[in-house]
Amino acid sequence: MSDDVLRQMVDRQAITDGLHWYTRWVDLNRVDKQVQIFTEDGCIAFRGDESMVQGRDNIEALIAPLVAAYEATHHYISNVEITFEGPDDARSQCYLHAWHRPADGSEDFILYAQYHDLWTRTDEGWRIRERRLKTAGTEGGSGAALEPIGRAD
């Protein structure tokens, strides 16, 4: 096995671990840890380009009240696909199934979505440079304003 193939196997696992790490911290309401998966100047968008937020501090300010609105959450990641665009850059796409129990006692909210991420290797390890949430559907709550996955007609 070549060194390049071995390196990609190790990198693929590190990126997959990062995806799981992010969701674990979401479910524990540890936004301070959750945002560490992003580069310092990383960005995230939940509702298309107009909702893009850049920088770890700004991402934390965006996410903290969203996560705090729930008494409990449970996120599942699956169907992870990773494509390397060079030794230090990669793209990933994965499915997300996320259950949310609102703290105000309102109806539970379930999200069926995908994360589309751009990754870069940093001194901290693999970090997300850009994350886009794309939605297939929701149950309960309101997911109408979320960016759709873009199914073909």
Quick synopsis:
This protein is an alpha+beta fold and 153 residues long. It has 3 helices and 6 strands.
Global shape? globular
> Could you name the CATH class?
Alpha Beta
Give the overall pLDDT as a whole number: 93
For the secondary structure, the number of strands is 6
Runs in which pLDDT lies below 50 for 5 or more consecutive residues are none
Distance linking N and C termini: 43 Å
Order of strands, widest sheet: 2-1-6-5-4-3
Q: Would you tell me the structural class of the helices and strands? A: alpha+beta
Largest sheet: 6 strands, mixed
Say what the CATH topology is.
Answer: Nuclear Transport Factor 2, Chain: A
Strand content: over 45%
Q: What would CATH call the architecture?
A: Roll
What is the helix tally? 3
Overview of this structure, please?
The chain has 153 residues and is an alpha+beta fold. The chain has a single domain, classed as Roll (Nuclear Transport Factor 2, Chain: A), CATH 3.10.450. Helices cover 27% and strands 46% of the residues. It has three helices and six strands, in the order ααββαββββ. The protein has helices at residues 3-27, 31-34, 56-68, and strands at 38-45, 53-54, 70-86, 89-102, 109-122, 125-139. Strands 2-1-6-5-4-3 form a six-stranded mixed β-sheet, with helices on one face. Strand 5 (109-122) and strand 6 form a beta hairpin. The model has no long low-confidence stretch (mean pLDDT 93).
Outline the secondary-structure elements.
Blueprint: H1 3-27, H2 31-34, E1 38-45, E2 53-54, H3 56-68, E3 70-86, E4 89-102, E5 109-122, E6 125-139
Parallel strand pairs: 1-6
Antiparallel strand pairs: 1-2, 3-4, 4-5, 5-6
